[in-house]
Specification:
- The protein is an alpha+beta fold and 351 residues long.
- The chain has 3 domains: 85 residues, Winged helix-like DNA-binding domain superfamily/Winged helix DNA-binding domain (Arc Repressor Mutant, subunit A, Orthogonal Bundle); 159 residues, Beta-Lactamase (2-Layer Sandwich), CATH 3.30.450; 85 residues, 2-Layer Sandwich (Enolase-like, domain 1), CATH 3.30.390.60.
- The protein has 13 helices and 12 strands.
- The strands form 4 sheets. The chain has a 5-stranded antiparallel beta sheet.
- The protein starts with 5 loop residues before the first helix and ends with a helix.
């Protein structure tokens, strides 16, 4: 990034803040944003700088790649590089207000230990606070590990298999046995399998199935099938909120831009790739990807603010938002950071 003078930094910061806040709604319900001109800056901020000097500085900032201007306007709008400079140099430390933090904490405590409600609440809070589309995934281990299994007699040869994984996930399926067994025998099989395979992955369980009786091997074959499925992402595992509102923003009036954003949520492989950025254990803290910095062509008009949460080596998930590059970065980053820390503390209490 090119070095900027203090006056250029001031002007760039004002242009970005003005442009982010410039969205207005027309009488027909459509929305628009207004490029920022020199005259407006002088009038709004009572700058002790002449409009001519500001115009000169705006031109220099454009030459350096921080600003650009639409063909039909003399005003300027930020580029991806301008937003990046703002985030890294000009934004400063931003936190949600104490009142907002108290409200969010109170909402989560009302949900108690309901993990599904936590996910929905996190998605709602992030969408509302940032004005962007929120993405939240439940906490899960990198590989499912068996914590406990239970076989429960129902009728005849039908048995209910209940699995609890180390990350807290619970799965259950019906099994049909070769011969009916009473509950005491089923309890004995459950106890032996729990003692042998506690904290094991599907691959570790599969490698030791030869040491078991036919019944125990059959039960564990179904257990490993369920665990392998649990290791795969499912679209239903991802919570989101705010998409319809974001699609009303001026940036997505263009069909191609709107389709690019929608594609992220419709194509599982693309969403998995985006979320892998947040879930990368080598990266800590909040990650900000602005426009064309990302490797996803569908998101070149968007910015992502993502963070991992949870307990390392046990269960982690991702929280974040996707929205236009014209994003209130300070507020969005602080919201993602706060929700991430709050979710981490909640998950830590479970483990």
């Amino acid at each position: 990034m090119a070095e900027l003078t203090s006056r250029q930094q001031l002007i760039l910061g004002l242009v970005i803040r003005e442009y982010v806040a410039s969205e207005t709604e027309n009488e027909d319900g459509t929305r628009r944003v207004q490029p920022v001109g020199s005259k407006g800056l002088v009038e709004r901020y009572n700058l002790d700088i002449s409009p001519a000097t500001i115009r000169s500085e705006l031109a220099r900032l454009e030459d350096q790649g921080y600003l650009t201007h639409p063909h039909t306007s003399a005003g300027r709008i930020p580029t991806d590089s301008g937003y990046r400079y703002f985030v890294e140099t000009l934004m400063g430390e931003v936190n949600l207000s104490a009142e907002e933090q108290r409200t969010i904490v109170h909402q989560f405590h009302q949900a108690r230990l309901d993990l599904d409600q936590w996910m929905k609440l996190a998605a709602s809070v992030l969408a509302r606070t940032s004005g962007s589309v929120s993405i939240v995934t439940p906490p899960r281990a990198q590989e499912a590990r068996l914590k406990h299994l239970q076989l429960i007699s129902t009728q005849g040869r039908l048995v209910l298999l209940i699995l609890v994984f180390m990350d807290g996930a619970v799965k259950q399926e019906m099994l049909t046995l070769a011969d009916p067994l009473g509950q005491p025998d089923l309890d004995s099989v459950s106890a032996k399998l729990n003692a042998t395979f506690n904290n094991r992955t599907a691959a570790e369980i599969k490698s030791r199935r030869s040491e078991l009786s036919a019944l125990e091997a059959d039960v564990l074959a179904r257990v490993t099938e369920i665990m392998n499925r649990a290791d795969q992402w499912a679209a239903a595992d991802i919570y989101r909120d705010g998409l319809s509102e974001v699609l009303r923003k001026p940036e997505f009036e263009d069909r191609e831009s709107a389709e690019g954003l929608l594609k992220v949520f419709e194509e599982r492989s693309l969403l998995e790739d985006v979320l892998s950025t947040a879930l990368n254990p080598a990266v800590n803290g909040v990650q900000v990807v602005i426009g064309s910095e990302g490797r996803w062509a569908e998101l070149h008009d968007c910015s992502l603010v993502l963070s991992r949460y949870g307990v390392a080596d046990r269960a982690t998930g991702a929280v974040g938002v996707v929205g236009p590059t014209r994003m209130p970065y300070g507020r969005t980053i602080s919201a993602v950071r706060y929700v991430s820390v709050l979710m981490t503390n909640l998950i830590s209490d479970i483990f």
